[in-house]
Amino acid sequence: MPVQNRIKTKYPGVTFIVGKSLSDNRDERIYYIRYRRDGKQCEEKAGRQFKDDMTPAKAANIRALRMQGKELSNEKRRFQLNEIKNAEANKWTIQRLWDEYRKLNPQLKGIASDKNRFINYLGPTLGKKEPDELEPLDVARLRIKLLKKKAPATVRNIMELLRRIINFGTKKHLCPGIDFKIEMPNVNNLKTEDLTPEQLKALLNAIADDDHPQAGNMMKMALFTGMRRGELGGGPHCLDSLMDGISSESIVKFFMKHQAASANG
Questions:
Q1: Residues 6 or more apart whose Cβ sits within 8 Å of residue 153
Q2: DSSP state of 46
Q3: What's the pLDDT tens digit per position in 59-89?
Q4: CA distance 120 to 140
């Protein structure tokens, strides 16, 4: 496209060409300024008549500021903006750390629950911050806010996820860590509920009547040791030998004794 001739204004170093408006295709003046800075001749666009509300006087003022070094040239402003964008793109924010953590741990147990915790609670409040930008007050406010609506165990899981994400970043040398400890809510999920002697007897009778070769032994093991389902599932092949010598009567006596001790204690 050929260079259009510049039309002079009454202001030194301020010219314009007539182009088309970007919005409605009508004629629009596009102002340019020319000045010398550090021995170098510069010509730059000052702005459009309608889009930027530019006038010859405004263009002359921009020219004066750039000649005095009080305003960056277009080239330097573009460079500065690119530097800022690059810096932003390279920041390891909580959001970016979470994305990387999830990418490297797709099969991690509970990752679906962690995703919900992050999307609903951590991302909206802390996602744009880098770990070293976090203040203890930021985390405390989030914890207190969540405790007003959520159970302590739920809030603890959210805080634990935040700690894991930050630890992931520091272990991978992606970012500095935090210089404070993330406080966890006190959680007391311990709930003991004993079977009555009648309930225990009925359960043992049901176990005795069942013809499954392993189910009975596994139930007795759970009753006698307090093992959880996941712990029982880890070694079902050894349950027969473990249950040898443990009679139903001894189990009943054990639980009757435990029930009496609980009632007296």
A1: 185, 187, 189
A2: E
A3: 999 999 888 878 776 777 777 677 666 666 6
A4: 17
